[in-house]
Amino acid sequence: MDAIRKVRPAKLYIVADGPRENVPGDQVKCSEVREIASAVDWDCQVTKLFRDENLGCGKGPSSAMTWFFEQEEEGIILEDDCLPSSSFFFFCTELLARYRHDTRIMEIGGTNFEHEKGRNKTHSYFFSNMIYIWGWATWRRAWKLYDYEMTHYHEITSKKYLDDHYDFAYEREHYNYIFQKMHTGDERTSRKTVWDYQWQFICKINSGLIIVPNKNLVTNLGFGAEATNTIDPVGAGCDLKLEEMEFPLKHPYLMMADKQRDQWYFNTICSSRAYRFKSTVKRFVPKLLYEAVKQTIKRMRRIAALGKDVALRSPSPVVENPS
What we know:
The chain has helices at residues 2-7, 26-37, 56-69, 86-98, 140-143, 153-158, 169-183, 196-205, 259-270, 273-284, 287-313; strands spanning 11-16, 45-50, 74-77, 82-84, 105-109, 125-128, 136-139, 209-213, 218-220. The chain is α/β, with parallel strands linked by helices. It folds into two domains: 1-54, no CATH class; 73-271, Spore Coat Polysaccharide Biosynthesis Protein SpsA, Chain A (Alpha-Beta Complex), CATH 3.90.550. Strands 3-7-5-8-6 form a five-stranded mixed sheet, with helices on both faces. A two-stranded parallel ribbon has the order 1-2. Strands 4-9 form a two-stranded antiparallel sheet. Helix 7 crosses helix 10. The longest helix is centred in the last third of the chain and has 27 residues, at 287-313. The termini are far apart.
């Protein structure tokens, strides 16, 4: 709220989900957050949507954005755990105007995960096929394409429309798995706690470009045990530094996704070396053999874990002092 107060927007839309059932203290925390978010002490038109029901981290944010874009043509979106720099707002404002009617652009991101020394600094931003949702901006024209249920999933996958969109087989396997879970889901993984993979799906099937700043303009404060998705306190992006964009902006003259930077992002943020190796092996090893090897490795890991547990619970050997 302090970051928003610095730029004093003329309009502010505030959405808060309801408390979770059977979660002690949630009612109190929700009340405290709503009080903080309502502390607007500048000349500003404030519109609130405070829910009694808890919709979760999937339907909650996505329906909130739909509600917002029913009232505005464009806007900047921040979740409660995202801390923006002051220049983030001016960066988004300028590019919202510049690309307002350019349907090739679906989103303006605020995060850059790259190491500062490795960045190409020719321009103020580049284009990507990957979404960045830790503080971002978009237009009603783009968000109206959003589909939480992924209605066209079966048609897209059965006709393999996206297969040639990926540069590597392991990238294709990753997104096929993710999109299938978001569409169908199970008790472990589903869209109940996620809204952004559906947005990634929509951007891909519409060949949408995402703007990524050459400076990191937003950090995420929501890492840790109380998080829904970023539970790992040292997960990717936990140590990003907040930067300020330099103006005037230097606009790129080519409207193309930077494939090299996208590949770095996928390899570094979206996947691990072990995952990519496993995916590559699966392509060349018969399925039955692969499954047999996978089950054997799982059994070996369980045996090793059991042995480690037994060793930890065993009394330490007594060493007599020869003196």
